[in-house]
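Researcher: Next entry in the queue.
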Amino acid sequence: MTTATIVGSGPNGLVAAAVLARAGLEVTVLEAAETTGGGTRTVEALVPGLLHDHCSAVHPMAVGSPVLSELGLDEYGLRWLLPEVDCAHPLDDGTAGVLHQSVERTAVELGRDEGRWRALFERPVAGYDALSDDILGPLLRVPHHPVRLARFGVPTLAPAALLARAFRTEQARALWLGVAAHAFRPLDLPLSSAIGLGIVTAGHRHGWAVAQGGSRSITDALTALLLDLGGKVETGVRIRTASQLPPSDVVVWDLAPTALADVLGDRLPARVARAYRRFRPGHAAFKVDYAVEGGVPWTALDARKAGTVHVAGSAEEVAAVERDVHAGRMPQRPFVLVGQQYLADPSRSAGDIHPLYAYAHVPRGWTGDATEAITAQIERFAPGFRDRVVASTSTSPAQFAADNPNFHDGNILTGAKDVRQLVFGPRTTLQPYDTGLPGHFLCSAATPPGPGAHGMCGAHAAQRALRYLR
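Model: Structure for this entry, 470 residues:
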């Protein structure tokens, strides 16, 4: 029987394993950690029964993922749940920019910016299921829907800060730049709109969903499917050199490019090894998990219903702090993403004690403690928050990297999403999943379409492996 080894059990590795097993291969997944899942783990970190997602938490790109839908993970217990409000961006005056799943409702509530929001999102949202065939894969290929992709693609070329100027209200400008800031990049650079436009469009189509029972439910469903297909998963197996691999017809690596270059060494073509070693990490995240009694007392009432809250103040402030982070300066008031997954999934709470997920953008290589800065930012928009905190725990960039080598220097996106790496992936090639070493393929979030629990990097790498075998 044809055999495949998958190194790494994040969503991309597990999707690659499932696709190959379904094609009839004998598949073994090797995971260095003692638990599977990579960024999609969920733990009881503070209070018994209180579920905290480790990294990947809210999934607008995963809920409509073609490969996750095709794999039928609902049969293995995966359930998507939606909050009443997808995302809120509170401002100091007590108002907020509010993102609903409905384009129409979002636009209407943005008042004077209703027409602009509709113009930007109505058409791509209506055609998203077809558009996703093109945006959830390599950008440098013949598109399935060239006209639709071109209409969507033109705004992505613009700096997010420039696109924000099209809006008249502070609520719309801040809401837009808060989503665009997910890219961990200065918002005045070309293509800084791309990730934000993708997230908003996908969210308007499918919602900012969470997985019932925590993000680990995605991993659990993929693992159960793989086992049903005859695959195997081995944890606590760290591959440091190619000589440790079992005999395999193909190997798919869910690793950062720099890590893969270290493992494969001079077996890689020299040009590929150089490209992988030059792969640039992005800026880092510093995370705080809270146990909060009674929830967060946001001044903006819509934020009390939002699964995600962007805590950063005005659009101008968002742009300024992202510039500071890029310049290596830690902002006094950082951009903070707050996850209130329990609003959609009450099973994560323990009575009236609720899990709160929050991380700040910090400079690459920063070694300080952002716990107080994150707490102060939440308190700024939710006076009395501190008094409701029962317990908390922090994860520094160094701890993120230690938990998951793909998160080099605490960068949870697996690499900087600058123009070159966003367009090409880890090296300049039309086949970003190929390593140049026959039978070896790369499927981590360093490859297109990039970060998220959508599994599409794994799906595309698996298809390359199947073509190689044919």
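Model: The CA atoms of residues 50 and 349 lie 5 Å apart.
Researcher: Noted, moving on.
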